[in-house]
Amino acid sequence: MENIVVYITASKEEEAEKIARILVEEKLAGCVNIIKNIRSIYSWEGKIEDDPEVLMIAKTQKHLFEKLSKKVKELHSYTVPEIIALPIITGSDEYLKWLNDITKPE
Which domains are seen in the chain, by residue range? Predict the structure, then answer.
C-alpha cells in the first residue's frame, strides 16, 4: 500500500471541521489534523494575497486520492482549493497498519 499525506487549506476552522469529518466518515482518510492560525501569502488573479487560513493534513492511501480530491472540491468554498499529496516514506508499522485497515472499503 502506498500511504500519503494530503495538505488542504480552508479559510475557516468550521469549514475544515466539516470537510475533515466527512473524509473520515467516508473512509477517504484515516485521520485529519486541523492546524489553526496559519498565514498564506500567494498570487491570485494578478494580486499578491495575504490571508489567514486553516491547514488540514489528511492521512490516507494513494489510490484514494482522486475520490478524496473530488469530495473536497464538492464541499470546499474556494474556486481552486489546495489539495496536494506527499508520500509517506516510512512510519511506525502499527500506525501504517491502522491507516491501511481504516481506509479499506467495507
Answer: 3-102 (3.30.70.120)
